[in-house]
Amino acid sequence: MIRSFVAALVLSLFVAGSASAAKVDVSKLQLAGDITQAQAEIVLKGALAKAVDQGVPMNIAVVDAGGNLKAFLRMDGAFLGSIDVSIGKAETARRFNMSTAALGAAAQPGGELFGIEVTNGRLVIFGGGELLRDANGVIIGAIGVSGGSVAEDTNVAKAGVAALEKAVKAKK
């Protein structure tokens, strides 16, 4: 009986807390230098438009400045196996502050970073991961795309970057 009372009390506090949390000014919770939801949506829309133009279903991931998943889109028909790859590309670009293509070039046999892909979980060292920057050039996140050829993935990722750059310039 006491357990039921405690459970009901905890539930009521959670519900009451959730209701008051909905009234919080989320702008005060957003870290400076981090991608916003609105910016992530701009990136997704730009990337999606390019993927549709190419006719290739893609998985598109956007991570924040800390490398945490912020937004994700799996187009109808996109490979299930590419979900993790797209997220991995975005995380990799952010972890190393460079495109996955640039990291991959340095990781070739004989290269300075040869073997790096086995040092961390989910590193991806081929094209399709690009950095996202604010108006001051500060890295605010990254995009990762998977589902087509490396060139197609890269084109879609760069279209997402370009969409954000265009929106940032328009705001100035």
Low-confidence stretches: none
Major sheet: size, sense and barrel closure? 4 strands, antiparallel
End-to-end Cα distance, whole Å, is 62 Å
Helical stretch count? 5
Task: Kindly report the average pLDDT value.
Answer: 89
The helix content is 40-55%
Strands, total number: 4
Give helix and strand order, one letter per element, not per position: HHEEHHEEH
Using the CA coordinates, give the radius of gyration.
19 Å
Shape: globular
Approximately how much beta-strand content do the residues carry?
5-15%
Q: How are the strands of the biggest sheet laid out side by side?
A: 2-1-4-3
Structural class: alpha+beta
Keywords: Signal
Protein name: Heme-binding protein
Explain what this protein looks like in three dimensions.
- The chain has 172 residues and is of the alpha+beta class.
- Helices cover 48% and strands 15% of the residues.
- The protein has helices spanning 2-21, 37-54, 82-96, 100-106, 150-171; strands at 59-64, 69-74, 129-133, 139-146.
- Strands 2-1-4-3 form a four-stranded antiparallel sheet.
- β1 (59-64) and β2 (69-74) form a beta hairpin.
- The longest helix has 22 residues, at 150-171.
- The model has no long low-confidence stretch (mean pLDDT 89).
Keywords:
single chain, 172 residues, alpha+beta, 4-stranded antiparallel beta sheet, 5 helices, 4 strands, 15% strand, globular, Heme-binding protein, signal, GlcG_carb_metab_protein, PduO/GlcC-like_sf, PduO/GlcC-like
